[in-house]
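Entry for the shared binder. Reason: the reviewer on the internal report wants the predicted structure included alongside the sequence.
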Amino acid sequence: MLAHSLISLSILSSALAIPYLHFHREDIVTDQQLLDACPGGRGSDTFERADRCKLREPLTVNPDVRKWAVVGDPQLNCGGGSDPVTVELGGEHTVSQTLSVNANFGVDIEGISIGGGVDSSSTESTTESKTVSYMIRPKRQAVFVAGTNHQSRTSQVQVNFPDRQHGHFEWYTNTLVTQLTPIADDVAFDVYESDCGTDPRDLSSLNGA
């Protein structure tokens, strides 16, 4: 019994040195200012708009991660009856590439597009659709879930500019990001049951939260 998620990017703090720069980068700019200049970002008062932001090579390849998410609406047998009920579960759900930030690091990357780290078996977006007939016991509720397997890659973010910015066309964040990208056709489906009175969409136990 499980569920599916969005490709996600998880940002963690890092104290890596940047050998390409011959000055203390933190004296000039912060990671937030660099990321704000990325496509989709809110714009930076320190840099012009970047052409591209991508994961910097070489990437650290992590084990694949299966993320679960709800497909369709939950169905309940919570009316106080003593008989099971048969319902139809499922529907359609799209998994897309997204970014998320470690809350302890304090970097906002909402809307930013970061490329790289994807091979031919992965896709930036995938849609999953399926329905099943299912019998729910009394005082129980159920929802159909899909678990999409994701590639996991970790690296700094490389920010490319069309013109020199403070002497450089390329800049690198000190921040490490972990990118989760859905693997095409690697999806598992299941039914997740829970007690009446709880949130039927809460899949934290399946996703390790």
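Summary line for the report: The CA atoms of residues 33 and 44 lie 5 Å apart.
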